[in-house]
Amino acid sequence: MSEERPSDDLARLAKRLDRARSEHAGAPAAETGDTAGQQQALGIGFRIGIEFVVAIAVAMGLGWAIDRVLGTRPFAMIVLFFLGIAAGMLNVYRAITGQGAAVGFRRPGKED
Amino acid sequence: MALELHPLEQFKIEPLIPLHIGGLDVSYTNSALFMTVAVVLITALLVLGTRRGALVPGRWQSMAELSYEFVADMVETNAGHGAEPYFPFVFTLFMFVLFANFLGLIPYSFTVTSHIIVTFALAAIVFIGVTIIGFVKHGAHFLRLFVPEGVPVVLLFLLVPIELLSYFIRPFTLSIRLFANMLAGHTMLAIFGGFAASIGLLAIFPTLINVGLIGLEALVAALQAYVFAILTCLYLRDALHLH
After folding, report:
1. Per DSSP, what are the bridge partners of residue B15?
2. Inter-chain touch B238–A102, beta carbons under 8 Å
């Protein structure tokens, strides 16, 4: 690369890039869009697979611990089992509706 | 025909340099070794790759720039505006998990992320960090995250515990997802591999399965690093923007 006239080099490079791009124009653009969508779908699929199970397991574990401390066996575990199902469903629902892993719900458009 | 399968042996942690400080076992293990290898490789890729800083990047510079831009783009789209200061953290996390996952695919290597204590430590850092950021940015207002809007007061007694629960589940889902995927994949590979070693000529079939599986594992390795990083971004967005 010549140090004196970098603008010449840049212009030539831009021309070459343009030519290369125009040769590959059309199909690849649609293709990349498709794979990006697939990637996202795969990401979501792998995410929610475990969400539901872990929610129930963790909630029941917490219930078991509370029962042990308070001696209320088995009530905390039962209550938390149902709360765990609810939380798991909530997480899965939010993951697939594109609200991310969001906790809490705000009406769209209302900025805090 | 006796099958000698030890599919879980690969996850055994062995001290390489025994070290005990104050009754604590802080030996340098094979797990620590592969963490070190991952960190060294990442540093080498990024430092050596960008050393020349050429306008037209070579292969190595291209890889370094690609990974940088990939994560930068992820942080921008998922964590939203104002998340830029946390980019280095997300980038570090992503690269570490990615390299640990891929290093684990090399035969006879050790998969750091197949241990839940490792993934849980990473997830706990994310969880605690995000919670602190939320409180620092919003103060007690951050607690509004757990109170859904426009809900009758009676229902709040039910909904707030559910929201709390789904918040505290985060570090568990984050860590278990990564750990379970790595553990299951590598166990499966070891089972088919051990199978192939013990059935003579028929070994071609389990070997073929393993060829397919290793491809799948490569996908999982990249995808799980991606999922880990993207969830970190989403959690960050919660803390920064409160929706």
Report:
1. B29
2. yes
Q: How many CB atoms lie within 10 A of CB B57?
A: 16
Higher pLDDT, A108 or B17: B17
More confident residue, A40 or A108: A40
What distance in Å separates the CA atoms of residue B106 and residue B5, rounded to the nearest whole number? 19
| A104–B177 CB contact, under 8 Å | no
CB-based contact A58 B237, cutoff 8 Å? no
Residues whose CB falls within 8 Å of the CB of residue B7, separated by 6 or more in sequence, listed in order: B187, B188, B190, B191, B194
* Burial profile B117-134: b = 16 or more Cβ within 10 angstroms, e = fewer: ebbbebbeebbebbbebb
Q: Whole-prediction pTM value? A: 0.83
Q: Give average pLDDT by consecutive 10-residue segment, chain B, 243 residues.
A: 71 89 88 96 93 85 93 90 92 96 93 95 96 92 85 89 90 93 93 86 90 94 93 90 74
Strand B28-29 relative to strand B24-25, pairing: unpaired
- Residue ranges per domain, chain B? 9-241
pLDDT at A5: 61
Q: Are B94 and B45 in contact (CB under 8 A)?
A: no
Nearest chain B residue (CA) to A93: B166
Chain A residues closer than 8 Å to B223 by CB: 42-43, 46
Q: Which of B159, B9, B182, B8 is nearest to B103 (CA)?
A: B182
